[in-house]
Write a structure and sequence with these properties.
Layout lengths: L11 H9 L1 E4 L6 E4 L3 H19 L5 H16 L9 E5 L6 E4 L3 E5 H4 L5 H16 L2 H11 L19 H9 L6 H17 L7 H13 L7 H5 L6 H13 L9 H7 L4 E2 L7 E3 L2 E4 L4 E4 L5 E4 L4 E4 L6 E6 L8 H10 L5 E9 L2 E10 L7 E10 L2 E8 L6 H11 L2 E2 L3 H4 L4 E7 L4 E2 H7 L7 H7 L7 E2 L4 E7 L2
Parallel strand pairs: 3-5
Antiparallel strand pairs: 1-2, 4-5, 6-18, 7-8, 8-9, 9-17, 10-11, 11-12, 12-16, 13-14, 14-15, 15-16, 18-21, 19-20
C-alpha cells in the first residue's frame, strides 16, 4: 500500500480548519502557535462569560474580602507576562474547593477554597497558577485541539440552543469552566504561578502546602475529589516539585511576604459548605427556604444544585430533570408562556395542558424542539407560576412513556409550599477565627475553643495541621460554627 493517499471528503473539514486558523505569539514563550482562537476572541469570551458565571455561582457577598482578593491578584498579575491586561479577580459563592480561569484575564476563586488557605502567600500562589493558564494561553490551546479532533464544545445538558440563556461567547465561556487541562498545562502553570508570586514579592515556599491540603482532601474517606483536582489534574509529585521550584525562585531574595495572620483574619465568618438558605437536599427531598418550596426527586438519582439550577439524573444517565427559573417569564401564566415559546420559534410544538400543582397554576406536557444540525428532541416540560416566579422544569428519558418519564412527572407534581419553620430557619456553617489561649495538641485546643459541626480531620486540614500536632499560644485557628 502506498504511504500517501489522496485527500478524502472526511479530511476536508480538518483541512479547512487549518486554512481558517491563524498563528499567534504566545506571551510566555514568544513563539508563534497554531490557534483558532485569537487574543481578541479570548477577551470577548472572558467578558461575555462573566455574567453567566455570576448567575451560575453567585458573587460572594463580602465586599471587603472581594477587594482583598482582587488586590492580591492585581499585584501578582502585574508581575506576569501580561501586566497590562485588564485583569479581574472574583470570589464566587460556591462551596467547592476550586479556582479557575477564563481567557482574557478573568480569574475566579471559590469561597470553599479560601476557607482552606492559610496565608496571603498561598492565595498569591493559587492566583498566580490561574494567571499562568491565561498567559500561557492554555484554554485557547485546548479549544484548538478539540476543534481539530471534531469534539467542539457541547452544552452538556438536554436543552436545545433555543433554550440557552446566553450568547455564543458567553455560553462558551461558561462551558470552559469544566474544560480539563493537561498535565503539561498544570506543570507549566505551577512553574509560572511560583515565578509570578515571587516576582510580586510573596514567599512561594508557602504554595506546596496548598497542594498537600488538596491531596489530603482527596484522600479523606468519603470526600469527593476537590474541584481543583478534577479540572487541574495532578502532573506528578506536585508538592515536591513546587517545593523545588519555590526554593530556586526565592534563592537570594529577602523580605518576601507571607501575611499569615492577615489572611486568616480576612476569612473570619466566611461561609463554609453548602448554604442551605439557597436550597438543600435531605436524601431525595429538596427544600428551598428563600423561595419557600419543596420537591421530591426520584429515589437514588444523583443530584446537582447550583445557584441557578437544580438537576437530577438516574445512575445510568438515561434520564434527567432540571429546574430553573423561566427566562422572560414576566407575569405570563404557564399556558401563555408555552404559547409564547411557540410563537417566537423557541419550540416547534407542544402537547399538554393546564393543571394545578401544589395550589398553583401550572402547565404540564411535552415540547418539541428543533435543533439546527441535529435531530429534533421531545422534552418533558412543566411551568409553575408561584407569585413573581415562573418555575421551569425540563426533562428527558430514554423513551417516551417509560418508567423514568413517569418519575420526572411525579417530581414536577410533588412541588409544594415550604412552611415548616425548622426547614425555613436554617443557618449555614461559618469559619470562625479563634486565638489559642494555651498551647496544646490541636484536637484538644480546638475542642476547648468551641470546635463545631464538621469532623476533626476536616478542621485540621483547614488549618494545615494534624490532629495531634502542637499549636502555640497566640496562634490563630480557623474553627467552624453554626451561626444563628
Amino acid at each position: 500500500m502506498s504511504r500517501f493517499r489522496p485527500w478524502t471528503v472526511a479530511a476536508l473539514p480538518v483541512l479547512l480548519l487549518f486554512m481558517l486558523a491563524g498563528c499567534a505569539a504566545n506571551p510566555v514563550t514568544g513563539r508563534s502557535e497554531l490557534s483558532f482562537i485569537t487574543p481578541e476572541q479570548e477577551l470577548e469570551i472572558g467578558k461575555q462569560g462573566y455574567g453567566p458565571v455570576v448567575q451560575e455561582y453567585g458573587l460572594y457577598d463580602d465586599g471587603t474580602l472581594q477587594k482583598y482578593v482582587d488586590n492580591v491578584g492585581q499585584k501578582v498579575a502585574r508581575a506576569s507576562h501580561l501586566p497590562n491586561l485588564e485583569w479581574h479577580f472574583t470570589v464566587v459563592d460556591d462551596p467547592t474547593v476550586n479556582a479557575f480561569a477564563m481567557p482574557g484575564g478573568y480569574i475566579y476563586i471559590t469561597r470553599g477554597l479560601l476557607a482552606y488557605l492559610n496565608s496571603e502567600a498561598q492565595l498569591a500562589g493559587v492566583l498566580g497558577h490561574e494567571i499562568g493558564h491565561v498567559t500561557r494561553r492554555h484554554t485557547a490551546a485546548r479549544m484548538t485541539q478539540q476543534q481539530l479532533y471534531g469534539a467542539g464544545f457541547m452544552l452538556g445538558s438536554i436543552l436545545s440552543p433555543t433554550f440557552q440563556r446566553y450568547s455564543g461567547a458567553a455560553q462558551q465561556g461558561l462551558e470552559l469552566l469544566f474544560l480539563k487541562f493537561s498535565r503539561t498545562d498544570e506543570s507549566q502553570a505551577d512553574e509560572l504561578g511560583v515565578a509570578y508570586a515571587v516576582k510580586a514579592g510573596y514567599d512561594a515556599r508557602e504554595l506546596p502546602a496548598t497542594y498537600t491540603m488538596l491531596q489530603r482532601l482527596g484522600d479523606q474517606s468519603g470526600q469527593r475529589l476537590p474541584g481543583f483536582l478534577e479540572t487541574h489534574p495532578e502532573p506528578g509529585d506536585r508538592a515536591r516539585i513546587t517545593t523545588e521550584l519555590a526554593k530556586q525562585a526565592v534563592a537570594g531574595k529577602t523580605g518576601l511576604v507571607i501575611n499569615e495572620n492577615a489572611f486568616i483574619r480576612s476569612v473570619d465568618s466566611i461561609l463554609y459548605g453548602q448554604d442551605p438558605r439557597q436550597g438543600y437536599f435531605e436524601g431525595d427531598r429538596y427544600f428551598h427556604p428563600t423561595l419557600a418550596f419543596q420537591l421530591s426527586f426520584p429515589g437514588g438519582w444523583q443530584h446537582r444544585d447550583s445557584r441557578s439550577t437544580v438537576a437530577a439524573g438516574d445512575a445510568g444517565q438515561t434520564a434527567v430533570i432540571q429546574l430553573t427559573a423561566a427566562r422572560d417569564g414576566g407575569t405570563l401564566s404557564p399556558a401563555a408562556f408555552v404559547a409564547k415559546l411557540q410563537a417566537d420559534g423557541s419550540i416547534s410544538s407542544s402537547d399538554g395542558g393546564s393543571e394545578t400543582i401544589g395550589g398553583y397554576a401550572a402547565w404540564v406536557g411535552r415540547l418539541r424542539v428543533e435543533t439546527e444540525g441535529a435531530p429534533s428532541a421531545t422534552l418533558d416540560a412543566a411551568f409553575i407560576r408561584k407569585g413573581a416566579d415562573l418555575f421551569q422544569f425540563l426533562g428527558q428519558s430514554a423513551k417516551l412513556g417509560d418508567a423514568n418519564e413517569a418519575k420526572i412527572l411525579a417530581t414536577v407534581r410533588s412541588f409544594r409550599d415550604l412552611t415548616d419553620p425548622a426547614r425555613i430557619q436554617v443557618a449555614p456553617d461559618r469559619v470562625r477565627v479563634r486565638t489559642v489561649d494555651a498551647s496544646g495538641a490541636f484536637d484538644a485546643v480546638s475542642k476547648r475553643l468551641g470546635g463545631a459541626p464538621a469532623d476533626l480531620q476536616t478542621v485540621a486540614i483547614m488549618n494545615n495541621l494534624e490532629p495531634a500536632e502542637q499549636v502555640l499560644t497566640g496562634t490563630l485557628l480557623k474553627l467552624l460554627a453554626r451561626m444563628r
